[in-house]
Design a protein that fits this description.
The complex is a heterodimer of chains A (about 300) and B (about 425). Chain A is an alpha/beta fold and about 300 residues long. Chain A is about 35% helix and about 15% strand. In chain A, the strands form 2 sheets. A 5-stranded parallel β-sheet of chain A has the order 7-6-5-8-9, covered by helices on one side. Chain B is built from 10 helices and 19 strands. In chain B, α2 links the parallel β7 and β8. In chain B, α4 packs across α6 and α6 packs parallel to α7. Classes of the chains: A alpha/beta (about 300), B alpha/beta (about 425).
Amino acid sequence: MKHLLTTKALTREEAELILDVTEQMAEAVTGREVPKLPALRGRTVVNLFYEDSTRTRTSFETAAKRLSADVVNFAAKTSSVNKGESLRDTALTLQAMGADAVVIRHPAAGAPQRLTEWLDGAVLNAGDGTHAHPTQALLDAYTMKRRLGGIEGRTVAIVGDILHSRVARSNIWLLTKLGANVRLVGPPTLLPKDIDGWPVEVAYDLDASLKGVDAIMMLRVQRERQNASFFPTANEYARLYGLDERRLALLPDHAIVMHPGPMNRGMEIAAAVADSPRATITEQVTNGVWVRMAVLYLLLTAGEAR
Amino acid sequence: MNPVKLIKSANLIGRGRQDVLVRDGRVAEIGSLRDAGAEVVDADGLVLLPGLVDLHTHLREPGREDAETVLTGTRAAAKGGYTAVCAMANSYPVADTAGVVEQVAALGRAAGYADVQPIGAVSIGLEGRQLAEIGAMAQSAAAVRMFSDDGHCVHDPVLMRRALEYVKTFGGIIAQHAEEPRLTEGAQMNEGAVSAELGLPGWPSVAEEAIIARDVLLAEYTGARVHFCHVSTARSVAIIREAKARGVQITAEVCPHHLLLTDEAARSYDPVYKVNPPLRQESDVAVLRAALAEGVIDAVATDHAPHAPQDKECEWAAARPGMLGLETALSISVAALGGPDDVDWDLLAERTSRTPARIAGLEAHGRDPEPGVEANFTLVDPSATWTVVPEGLASLSRNTPYAGMELPVTVEATFLRGRATVLNGKIAEETTE
């Protein structure tokens, strides 16, 4: 593994290795007075974020620092891919500075893959357009593994704006690779066209899709999508596809409620559900740091001397 | 100097091996001829085609001379076997006045590598709001007959209707870039299984088909001529087929890349494969090939679209759409029409030369050699192959999607009014007539 661009490109063995190392990271650091490991001392990790995401950037920064790496936050303040320095020139600059790993978030799908053509260091995709967000999927898988005791044979419903969701795409490839059944639920306007070849079930009716679900993942839905007629109103969306207490009661008792954040309370998820003990939302945030430690560690040490 | 030339032992379509004598830029004689002091071009084993005619070329001059100039673009055309190219209107400034189209035509004459027939804009600034001075462009020295807002669709149905009616005064034609703009907002690649996976916003085939269907009806209603640029989908072919059967005056072109490549290429995220309309699916490619052979699609047109490196060495979404085509179109057309061993050369000449010349109204082009006809033709080696090396292309730009591919047939020579623009596979450096 030289880069982490998508979960689709991971083998099952690689994915399982990442999840195993994630667990080791959590165990190694939890409860320590100084929650830090020396594994990446002297290595430079660059956070190259073209989209505002304090959550994800902070998670990566925390992960790198806990491994003793030097972290550089490269300000890429372009709101548009057409303005400012080109991605290639930025890559050549980072290359010249000797970045060992670049964590990139970019509004254009495929930008991390392009970056690998111009950089020698490891490229870690922290979200590209509506394409992929592999560490989010890995932290989701890790959370399921912890809460459900495993992933093989479990049924996961992913609900909402699949079309615009890199989180959904990365989860589909990862979870099915790890043996889960994945059920996509949303209005046809928010499902990509021609996905018959995907290894998933597709449904439009949320109530009918709750049976036998072990984990339900609610995707963030932007209210503004109503302006482009993806759905009539936010209220109608919440009524048809929001997870409220009534629907929560229809889920099996052991089922967990996940959300990649940030949430739109009252839209895709009711406040009471978000705050219920069945929701794993803050746990996902904690697990995100362990997963990102594992990935940085594996990419930068090639897993040596573990 | 334009000496008398004797092209020896060329394989003429439908006539077998013949010698062709060229004098004063025209064919003087065909038969078994003696050289009698003429400059001899050995064409043994070569096929003589009427010079190729491109209905759809972006020469980028004026405005983007860093990507291509009329000179470099027509050198690339000659290298690809073309003797005439129709220059699209989306230059800077836009070719929406008599002044700009005359400038482009003059640059073409000065370069001397291929006849450059400017295409005029339908609307001022390609903005789709107000008709450009179509009459002035038609009456200018450039004698424009074909008008297009290519790169943009004439999507306003009223503007399209008026344009169609207006060009009837001089037998003009509107070349439509069929793309319903609301259906393609933000679109990056063909909408389908691959775009779903890659997370690139889709360009649905119906956005092309909806406009073609509408314009078929407008052409029928107004009795005017519509030409459809770069037809890319199977359903577009079905609509065109049905309309032609009804006798509607429409013609259609297909681009080489739509005859060979599919949206699978986008998996690399390399914008060299980004083009508008986008690369479609295998099933579309098959239908387009069959439609070209059958004649439902009238012509191959390159949509040669050179781009500077910075416009392609970037993220997919930031890249400009378009790919080079002039130097590879003949090879890909041969491949799409059955390959070098099975291709019907007469059909190939029809789709790449005679029909496009007729559509564009270029009377001196697309003519098979007969005494008195302008000597615009190309000699092709049907048994040779070549490998595409971007740095080796005559175009100023490098954005070919075929880098590293081995393609059939080579252009050995191209003649424009009897003068070799390409000889022995090399571009001639002296072109003044």
